[in-house]
Design brief:
Number of strands of chain A: 10
Helix content of chain A: 25-40%
CATH class of chain B: Mainly Alpha
Order of helices and strands of chain B: HHHHHHHHH
CATH superfamily of chain B: MetI-like
Strand order of the largest sheet of chain A: 6-7-8-3-9-10
Order of helices and strands of chain A: EEEHEEHEHHHEHEHEEHH
CATH architecture of chain B: Orthogonal Bundle
Number of helices of chain A: 9
Oligomer: heterodimer
Distance between the termini of chain A: 33 Å
Largest interface: A-B, 30 and 21 residues
Structural class of chain B: mainly alpha
Number of helices of chain B: 9
Strand content of chain B: under 5%
Radius of gyration of chain B: 20 Å
Number of domains of chain B: 1
Largest sheet of chain A: 6 strands, mixed
Number of strands of chain B: 0
Radius of gyration of chain A: 18 Å
CATH topology of chain B: MetI-like fold
Strand content of chain A: 15-25%
Helix content of chain B: over 70%
Distance between the termini of chain B: 49 Å
Chain lengths: ~250, ~220
């Protein structure tokens, strides 16, 4: 990557290794994501891409190496780490909305508890966000009453409510029925267009082509390719990427 | 059965004493047990050790031994007070171990993604436990917790027999041993006293279970 200015990258990983028991899931990962960049991480299942995403807010601790977010190394477990996570938005494959709270409460919980915003102000912001993702009419329902697509959009609103510096998406559309994928991708595309720094683990090639600035291809815990979407989809360099693209683009 | 009516004020006082022991012990053991459950799932290893040891000690010791320690051991190390409070303390220590395990099973029933999402938005461990995990755990915890509390109410008889005195069980003891009343009618009175506490208690738990089940 070309460092265009002196500001620290939003995400910096330096020689990161991670094991699950004997399984070496992340192998010497070094990468930087500058501010405002939208990075899509592709790769076959089991390639370590979800784990990579989850190490950035330390939901998965790493064994060796260094991870920095906006120039700050990830703190160890505790208050400091909670503060850092508040600035890193995360969207999960299975939504993980708080099941006992309404959609509105889901969005206001962290701003009130962590940022200590007054409830009225948090509600106002939450309603604006719900409008942005198109589900204001669902505000008082419980997550189980919403469709998957609506739940995922609510989860994006919940993450945005903390005004994060960077957003991590861990296969945000993989648990959705096909007809609901687009509504979630539309919200993500808008967000990308607004200049949000994003790291998106996905299988949605359309999104990668349209919204990403950069594609990282992982296989067996390694970063195999790191290029622009155009380059990756039209002229992949490695055999593994060609093989992967051959399998998913033929149908 | 006249013995019950003739000694009604004695039974009433015994009933109230039992109620008093149970009320203090229930509040104490629910609070302490939930706290220890928090220790057991904490990311801080020393807290986990404390929690595990606590459960292992108090769940595996007979209640009478725990009460012995409180009533006769505590004064030896300079803690003095009324037998009533020693008895309640013993019952709280013992019951908290069971409350802890019931609450912990509830915590484990909440999908891991809920706690992950809570941590991901910046809640601390304590905040995610108290605002996200425990409220959802409550749902599965009510039935086993009910059994624990009902067992505790019955165990209060042992506390009464331990010199605290004046409770329902002690009333039965007084009437049969000191006054030579016939055992059966006296004990029927004692049983009725316990049922007056435990049966409405069970009904209240059923109501609570339905109430928290709806809140989804």
């Amino acid at each position: 990557m070309t460092a265009s200015n002196t500001a620290p990258p939003m995400i910096r990983m330096e020689s990161v290794d991670k094991f699950f028991g004997p399984l070496h899931v992340l192998k010497d990962i070094t990468l930087q994501v500058p501010k405002g960049q939208v990075v899509v991480v592709l790769g076959p299942s089991g390639s370590g891409k979800s784990t990579l995403c989850r190490t950035i807010n330390r939901l998965e601790p790493i064994d060796t190496g260094l991870i920095e977010v906006d120039g700050r190394p990830l703190p160890a477990e505790g208050k400091e780490l909670a503060n850092l996570r508040a600035e890193v938005g995360m969207v999960f494959q299975s939504f993980n909305l708080f099941a006992h709270k309404t959609i509105l409460e889901n969005v206001t919980l962290a701003p009130v508890k962590v940022r200590k915003l007054p409830v009225a102000e948090a509600r106002k912001t939450a309603m604006e966000l719900l409008e942005r993702v198109g589900i204001t009419n669902q505000a008082d329902k419980y997550p189980a009453q919403l469709s998957g697509g609506q739940q995922q959009r609510a989860a994006i609103a919940r993450a945005l409510a903390m005004r994060p510096k960077v957003m991590l998406f861990d296969e945000p559309t993989s648990a959705l029925d096909p007809e609901m994928v687009q509504e979630v991708l539309d919200v993500m595309t808008t967000l990308a267009g607004e200049g949000m720094t994003m790291l998106v683990v996905t299988h949605e090639m359309g999104f990668a082509r349209k919204a990403a600035n950069r594609v990282i291809f992982m296989s067996d815990g390694e970063v195999v390719e790191d290029s622009t979407p155009d380059e990756f989809f039209t002229a992949p360099k490695s055999g593994r990427a060609k093989d992967f693209l051959g399998k998913i683009l033929t149908h | 059965m006249n013995v019950i009516f003739d000694n009604f004020s004695l039974y009433r006082d015994g009933f109230l004493q039992t109620l008093k022991i149970c009320a203090f012990a229930a509040i104490g053991s629910l609070v302490l047990g939930t706290l220890i459950a928090g220790f057991r799932v904490s990311p801080v290893p020393p807290l986990r050790w404390v929690g595990t040891s606590w459960v292992n000690v108090f769940r595996n010791c007979p209640l009478t031994v725990v009460l012995f320690f409180c009533a006769f051991g505590l004064p030896e190390i300079g803690v003095n007070g009324a037998y009533f409070w020693f008895g309640v303390t013993g019952l709280v220590l013992y019951t908290s171990a069971f409350v802890c395990e019931a609450v912990r099973s509830g915590i484990n029933s909440v999908p891991a993604g809920q706690a992950e999402a809570a941590r991901a938005v910046g809640l601390t461990f304590t905040q995610s436990l108290s605002t996200v995990v425990l409220p959802q755990a409550l749902r599965t915890v009510v039935p086993p917790l009910g059994s624990v509390i009902i067992a505790m109410i019955k165990n209060s008889a042992i506390v009464g027999a331990f010199g605290v005195g004046g409770d329902l069980f002690a009333v039965g003891d007084t009437l049969t041993s000191s006054r030579g009343e016939a055992v059966l009618p006296v004990l029927i009175g004692v049983v009725l006293g316990y049922l007056v506490i435990t049966i409405p208690g069970g009904l209240a738990l059923g109501w609570l279970e339905r109430k928290v089940a709806i809140a989804r």
